[in-house]
Each structure stands twice: as structure tokens, then as C-alpha cells.
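It is worth pausing here to work through a concrete case rather than discussing structure prediction in the abstract. The textbook approach is simple: state the sequence, then state the predicted structure, then interpret. We follow exactly that order.
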Amino acid sequence: DMLEQSLARLGTDYIDLYWIHNPADVARWTPRLIPLLRSGKVKHVGVSNHNLSEIELANQILGEAGFRVEAVQNHYSLLYRSSEDAGILDYCRNRAIPFFAYMV
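Step two, the predicted structure:
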């Protein structure tokens, strides 16, 4: 319902990149994105604020349907390197997933 309302407000029939900012309950929300991807209303899915296991799970669920996580956005800077330390940057690099840093 929220996607349909957003599409109407934006005057479009699809979203290029749908960001999921809340990592809570990846197993529950990820399958709900698959019909949106299949319909073309969502072209790509990105996740933000997710740890490595949450990113892997989302990517696995989407992968089973022929899709994948297309972008990752996490807090990352010279002082806050948890995405690097946790292996998220390597995971993204090895799968050609763009990584977007915020609060650099």
C-alpha cells in the first residue's frame, strides 16, 4: 500500500531503487519484495544499516527468485570502519554490489 501511494505521489509507475533501511526481520520482508520486482514496480533493491548476515540472507532470498541485492548503504568513514571490519565491503566487491557510505 505504501509503495502504491508513493508511486501515485511521484507520478510514476515504478521505483528505480527501493531502499530498505530497517534490518529488522529480513526473512519476513524480503519475500514481499519479490512480487514488486516481478511486476516491474521496483527495478532494484538496496539495503541500508544491515550487517553481513542480514545482507547475505536478503541476497539469498532474492536470489532464489532470480533477483539480488543491488546496493548496500551503511555508515562508513575513516573513523567508523565496521563495514570493512565485518567483511561487508569485501562481500560487496566480490559480488559487484555498489557500496554507498553515509556519514563519511
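Step three, interpretation. The chain has a mean pLDDT of 96. The longest strand covers residues 42-48.
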